TrEMBL record:
Cellular compartments per GO CC: cytoplasm; nucleus
WD repeats by residue range: 261-287, 288-327, 328-367, 368-397, 408-447, 448-487, 488-530
InterPro entries associated with the record: Atg3/Atg10 (IPR007135), F-box-like_dom_sf (IPR036047), F-box_dom (IPR001810), WD40/YVTN_repeat-like_dom_sf (IPR015943), WD40_PAC1 (IPR020472), WD40_repeat_CS (IPR019775), WD40_repeat_dom_sf (IPR036322), WD40_rpt (IPR001680)
Ranges of residues in domain F-box: 153-199
Name of the protein: F-box domain-containing protein
KW Repeat (keyword) present: yes
CDD domains: WD40
Record key words, sorted: Autophagy, Repeat, Ubl conjugation pathway, WD repeat
One GO biological process term: proteasome-mediated ubiquitin-dependent protein catabolic process
GO MF annotations in UniProt: ubiquitin binding; ubiquitin-like protein transferase activity
Amino acid sequence: MMCSTISSSNPSILPTFTCENTTGECQILTPDTSLCPKSPTKRPCRDQSELVVNKTKRLCNSTRTSFSELRVDETKHKTIDNPSYRQTTISTPSTVTSNSKKPSPSILEWLSQFNQMASDDRTSAIDLFIKNCSSDTSQLKYLRNKIEPYFQRDFIRDLPRELALQVLRYLVASDLSRASRTCRVWNEIINDVLLWKRLCQNQQIQYKDKPCIFDNLITNPWKRSYACYQHLIHTWNKGQLPHSRYFRGHEDFVITCLQFDGKRIVSGSDDNTLKIWSVETGECEKTLTGHNGGVWCSEMTDNLVVSGSTDRTIRVWDAETGECKHVLYGHTSTVRCLALYKDFVVSGSRDATVRIWNIITGERLHTLAGHTAAVRCVCYNGKYVVSGAYDHTIRVWIPENKRLVHVLEGHTNRVYSLVFDSKHIVSGSLDCSIRVWDVESGTCLHHLTGHLSLTSGMQLRGNILVSGNADSTVKIWDIESGKCLHTLSGRNKHLSAVTWVQIVLNYVVSSGDDGTVKIWNLETGDFIRNLMELESAGSGGVVWRIKCTNSALVCAAGSRNSTEDTKVILLDFDRTTSLNNDENSNSNSSSMSTTGAILTTNPLHKNDRINSDDEMSVTTNPSASSLIPMSLTLNEFQSAIRFIQKLSQKLGDHWQIVDPSPIHYPYLVYKIVQKRSNKQEKEDYLQYEYHVIYNESYSVPMIYFNVSNLNGSLLSLKEIWELFSYNNSSPSLNMYETITQQEHPVLNRPFYALHPCHTEKLLKQLIASNIVQNSNQYLIAWLSLFGQSIGLPFIPNYAIENGKSY
């Protein structure tokens, strides 16, 4: 299409364009004041007196969003013939292709007239121009495509890294993964370790430190942990079921209790024994013998196993050696239930008493009497002991003074099950009902009805309660409102009594007297599939108990009529570990698409690994030898600060390690009081405080510091600049670009800090030049070079003691 213009003598009137199409026909596009085109996605133009054209440095630097907000800089660009004007106004972002044809003289003349107009006249001309183009949508689209790039801005790239991460933390993982494929800058920012750590912690995803199938694909350790978690969810939900591993040893006796901690399985039976099985080897490590009656209950913590028996005793075992450490006597009938809290165990017996014991010393601490029938279930949170009994009551005790706080009455039959979250007590009874109680007031908050028989098992997560009943159904409740959210039944329900339920990830796992284990969606209540089905299912096979972790399912199975042998069955759903790669390689390839969005990121650096028990040894990944690492791992940092502390003690220096809490990593602290420099007018003393803390976002050490007068008042940034300008031996180092004030990550107080990006660059240079060879030298070199710029006294003897002088 060819275009030309007919200029108007009146500069305030927009000239008329004549457009010639390929057929040679001409169209006269005259202004039509009756038309007022308004884009449905644009707001009306405002006053035309506030117009700005972006500078050549960045065309999309402006945040204005309408034509009326553009302003031509007339002081610099008076005419179209000015080359700088053409460079500023005609250049467009690379995404928009400009017309390479030279403008005709009439167009140049009109532009010259336009530049000479007043601001109001320009606005009127633009309005008329848009109205003139309204009859041809292709011209409006062309105009839009030309203008839009001027208002686009990559805010993630332009914002400071901390603010960009603050914005990104509101995105879910799938959106982060898609955004990481936008460009390299976004990929690098979104691959931030701290961003993925917070995402994992918000979803209670555990850090995975074992080798896994994603090691060569994802370098960010927390992002790799998230990928493993998503892979695990897929395996529970849709993945190929893992191969069942069988543990046999109780012959044809019933397995009455089951414990599982991820590494060991402990099964107790009415054959008077307990067996400890190794998950890794599949072998029976120990058989615990000593009870003279069937084992009816057990608990496990660390390396101790506690068991209760029909012989009226409680035994404490060492899981490593199989030795019986204590035999706790006192009950006069079968020990029916146990509850473990730290070093204390609470036992309930058919003698109607509750007793508290110290499992380390074997001492009996308290005896709580008050029930008039067998105690069937107990709970303990360190403050309250809650017991349910066949006398239809639940009792709440404070064991230290043997005080009975509440007697909760309301059930009309035996109480068989309890759950307790330190605020709510939930009780299940043979009267077909479930009751929710407030532990402080002792009032019944809700009476949950709907089951038709005994509630055999319950589990509570937050305000969501899952109950399994002998009526073959599973129900999901909200204990805050008292409503039943879902009843897990239908054609896929259990064919007989539900024996146990457990919440795993976002699923409910249930076992039944029908010999099956089923998995359901916790949020929707939908049936997903059968996880296991015994060969004798429906004809005598029974799954008595189940125990789950996020990665594995353990079942205790057998039969009541000898149609199924007694055994423990393990299903390991964690296909991400290297140990399981060979066995599950086929299923991995089919299910890896669930984490595909997470895997399509380029590795930014390869973290070396260190043996944390050996402070002087560093081991690197041979496959990453061709890459230049730009950071330190957390283990390397912790090893290095321990090394510096040892040298500090040897040299009589003042470095100390602070280990604040389990949720924060240890860090180095250096405090010193010095007189102001002689170049300063003041002769008073100042207190310097330096903290060397690991920065997870950059995977490098970071210095936080404050300088204060002896009265505690902090120096301002200007005062610190004047103070350190005399100590700085590197004049090229710009303190304003290096120092920033931010909140201390542990103390939550304002501190000045050296920005970690400089550390990352320095470490890269040191490693590339082969100056340093282990993590201890990394930290020493960094403190020597950067510390002097902020007045940190770091003597050369540290490098000499480490075997190399810098």
